[in-house]
Structures are given as C-alpha cells and as structure tokens.
Specification:
With 422 residues, this protein is an all-beta fold. Helices cover 1% and strands 48% of the residues. The protein has 1 helix and 33 strands. The strands form 8 sheets. It has a 5-stranded mixed β-sheet, with no helix packed on it. The chain has a 4-stranded antiparallel β-sheet with strand order 1-3-7-5, with no helix packed on it. Strand 13 and strand 14 form a beta hairpin. The radius of gyration is 25 Å and the shape is elongated.
Amino acid sequence: MCSSDLSSSHPTGIDEGGTLRISLSTNVPTGTSIPYTISGIDQSDLSSGSLTGNFVVGTTDYIDLGIALDVTSGEGYETLRLTLPDQNQFIEVTINDTSTTAPSLTDTITTSNGTSLPAISADGQWIVMGESDGIVDAQIFKYNSVNDSWEYSQSVSPPAGYTTSAHSFGVSSSFSSDGSILALGAPYYPNFSSQTGAVFIYERDINDTYIFRDFIPEPNITTKNNFGFGCTLSGDGNTLVVSEYLANAGNKLTTFEYDSINSVWNVVDVLDNWTTYGFKHMYIDMSSDSQLLVASHSAGAFGGGKGVIYERSGQGWTKRDEAIPTTDLLNNMHRGSALSNDKSLLALSCNSYNKGNSNIWLFDWNPTTSSWVQRSDVIKQTISSLSFGANGDSIAMSEPDSNGMVSLITTNGNVYKIPASL
C-alpha cells in the first residue's frame, strides 16, 4: 500500500512576496511521478511556479512557489490548496494579503470638550464625542457628504432631574447601526463620591435631534461600581451591554434587552468576568447581530493588556479567544476596543498612562486558523508625559464605505481611513 504525506514550510500562513515550499513524503518507488494541482488562487498570484506539475520521488520531493506581491489592496485572505490524484490527499496554506494601504489621517474633529471619547455609527454618518475633561455634555456631529466633512449638530447633557458630577457624562458611548439610538455611559453618576454609575439612552427624531428617552441605573446600586465605564449597543439598538471598572463587588458585564411594549430595559445576563476569567474590562464593543463582544483588558498601569472576545451563549457570554499585540509593545494601560459589525476586523488601543506612546493595533480574523492576525501597521502617537488624552484612550470604528475603507476615530478626534480587509 502506498501512502503520501504533504508538509509546508509555512504551516500557519505566508505573506505575499514570500516563497512557499511544499514537500512530499511517500513510500512509492524512486522515480515515480506524482502529479499535483493547485486551487484557490490564480496563476497571477504566483511569481514563480505553476498551478499544475509533478513531484518526482527521490529527485524533486518538493516544489517552491513564489507568492506574488501584487498592488491590489483589500483582496482578503486566500487559501492555496494543493491536491494529489487521491482527492483525500491535500494540504492548505493561507496567503495573507499584505499589499494594503497604511492607515491615513483624513480629518480631525474639534470639540469644545477638550479631550473627548468617541463613538461612530456603523453607517459612518454620526459621531459623538463624550466628555472626559470635566465638561458635562456630549457633542454630536453629522457627516456632510457634499462637503466631505463633519459638521457640528448638537450637544446633549443629562436631563433635568438627573444630577451628575463632572468627568462623567459620555465616558463611554455607542450608536445603533443607523445612528438612531445613542447610549451614553456616566460611570461617576450621581457624583464623584458615590460613583455608582448609569447609562442614558437618546433617540433621534425626524428633525435629526437627539431626545432623551431612557435612564438605566446600576442594577445593584453599589457604591463605586462605575457602571457605564463601557457600553455598547447592537445594530438594532435593542441589546445593550454595560461594563464596570474598579468595582468593589467585582468587574461585571451586564446585558440588557429592550422591551419596546413596556419601554423598559430588562437585565437578561450578568457575567462576573473578574471572578470567572480574571479580567477587568474598560471599553467594550459588540457586533451588529449582538453575537460577538470584544472587551479591552488592562493588567494595570504597567501593561499586559489584551482584547478578550466573548461569544453569545443563550442570553449571556462565553469567552471565545483573545487578541494580543505582538509588536510595538509598551508599558501602557490597554483601554480601547472596536469591532466591525461583520466580526472580521478588530482594533485595540492603549493610552499613555505610563508616559509612553499611545498605540492602536489592528487585527483581522482568519477563519482558516480561527485566530486573529495582527496587521503590520500601527497607528502611533508619541507622548512625552503622563496623559489621559491620547489617541488610544478610546476608539470607535464604522463599517466599510463603497471603497472598502473603514473610518476609525480616536480620542482626540482624529479620523483615519483603513482598509476593511486584507
């Protein structure tokens, strides 16, 4: 009985521009010619080698394939599949699209808030900059497609009857996909002494004005739970997840579902992620279908951060995997996280808490290996002193436009265009 095994020089994937070697190990007689075919790519994807050919046992037990470095960005991952005559004998190798455009700064939104914390609607039409420097309001901007610019629309503040301290309102924020629903977290509500926390919900009317609709207090009324440090809405605006930070009773993710008939938000799950997984989460972001959630985890002021990805399980959440930056590591506190609605692009960020640079890292989901692959491009901001106003303090991301580019907005109002996929 003859048997054959195939192996690759790059089992975890190869970048465009590299050389891939596929080797054959078999017990058939020397000199035997064994044909192969390659699918999943075109001949133009190869700078050397062919989609068809032969292994010759004892003479050419391997083939070398040059992977072309083309100039087209946003093609996405490709899977090269080499098959022997027996269709059950094959090997697959992921080709990473590295011919992409680096993030480019296209705009800067200036607010009267000073340093602000952003959210952007998935359709890329609305931005909110929540307060972080002691001004108790959040400023909303609308995209003007005619002028290709962001224009100030309105400011929203806590409604009458709801007192809140400075450095609180809009520390976290989130839109529904079309921007019609807006959630604003106030983790120090009702004042800096208690820091219980709350979330305020606004709805946009026919005049494009955001009107206060709902008040969601911390369910357990626990002092210094900082409920609302992070909040994120589903695409339809009916699912809300809220994070806590520096919580006395643990660090939790609370999930709410909106009951439109009775106009109330009901708690459907509370995940004590500190007790369950040992994570403390700041900012969070959820996919449009409310099935995937990314939460930034900070090990403290001196680094060790990561992105923790949770998958919906019933009405609650179960940890699925992690994304950990592997380059340009700094002793900084990881804070920001943003996830594309299709769950394929992830951004993680850190501020400059420990007097280092503020970085934003980008990751793509590789379904072949079921893992996050970090892009080579890092958005960097050089910081020379202690600062909470850095680029990566908090981030938000839109869905791709007609050119396949995503808008990513940072804490200080910088808007970057980045390819939606590699």
